[in-house]
UniProtKB/TrEMBL annotation:
It comes from Herrania umbratica. Its main location: endoplasmic reticulum. This is Protein ARV. Keywords: Endoplasmic reticulum, Lipid metabolism, Lipid transport, Membrane, Sphingolipid metabolism, Transmembrane, Transmembrane helix, Transport. Coiled coil: none annotated.
Length: 230
């Protein structure tokens, strides 16, 4: 990690720190403490990746601070490429979710004509792009109204990254390619994504939990209604 390029944060209290560790020799480091809370600034540096993943699943804010502030660098040259890759993966998983919903709502059969497949995939594309457009618009508007802050251009990348990263529960949809699950599982995954988005928004904006819950709920509700309507 190069110093001066990243906005490091203490994972415990969110206070900005200059550096996370001092390296004396390869494999010999000393973790730095936060000047505010006096705790180790980022304990995850010495943890296995599995520990970080478990804490993310448990919705621990300190795990999100570690990932969004101390690992992913918005000023890095790779940031734009990472953002596009995450966006592509997000849209693909969203399209697959829409496909699963329509597969359960509309009884598929081998007798479906080419025109039926065409209209089906057309509806999926409308769901994905229109639904996410409405989600983003309502999300930014709700942040401005409920959190009393605006998503300036320099923070828009952080907000988008937080939403994409915290939507990792969508990966569970891949399991539905192999095993048969009831349609209710899709909506359970949606709720997990909603809760994860809320924690990520709280970490990025340093706001209270209740406004973050409201902003994420409104955005997801509008997206759901939009996809159902069309």
């Amino acid at each position: 990690m190069k110093e001066g390029l990243m906005e490091y944060r203490c994972v415990q209290c969110g206070f900005q720190v200059k550096t996370l560790f001092v390296q004396y020799s390869p494999g010999n480091i000393r973790l730095m403490k936060c000047e505010k809370c006096k705790a180790v600034a980022d304990e995850y540096i010495e943890c296995e990746l599995m520990i970080v993943l478990i804490d993310l699943i448990l919705h621990k804010p300190k795990a999100y601070r570690h990932l969004l502030y101390n690992v992913l660098n918005q000023q890095g040259t790779y940031f734009q490429g990472l953002l596009w890759k995450l966006l592509f993966g997000f849209l693909v998983l969203d399209a697959y979710r829409s496909l699963l919903v329509k597969r359960h709502d509309e009884k598929w059969g081998m007798s479906m004509s080419i025109s039926s497949y065409f209209w089906l995939y057309r509806k999926i594309l409308v769901d994905v792009f229109l639904g996410n457009f409405m989600f983003l618009c309502c999300f930014l508007l709700a942040i401005r109204k409920l959190l009393k802050t605006s998503a300036q251009f320099f923070r828009l990348g952080k907000l988008l990254l937080a939403v994409l990263i915290s939507s990792y529960f969508k990966i569970l949809l891949v399991a539905m390619m192999v095993w048969e699950f009831p349609p209710s599982v899709i909506y359970i995954i949606d709720l997990l994504v909603l809760s994860s988005n809320t924690v990520a928004l709280k970490v990025i904006t340093e706001s209270d939990m209740n406004p973050c819950v409201g902003a994420c709920f409104i955005a997801h509700a509008v997206k759901f209604c939009t996809t159902q309507a069309f």
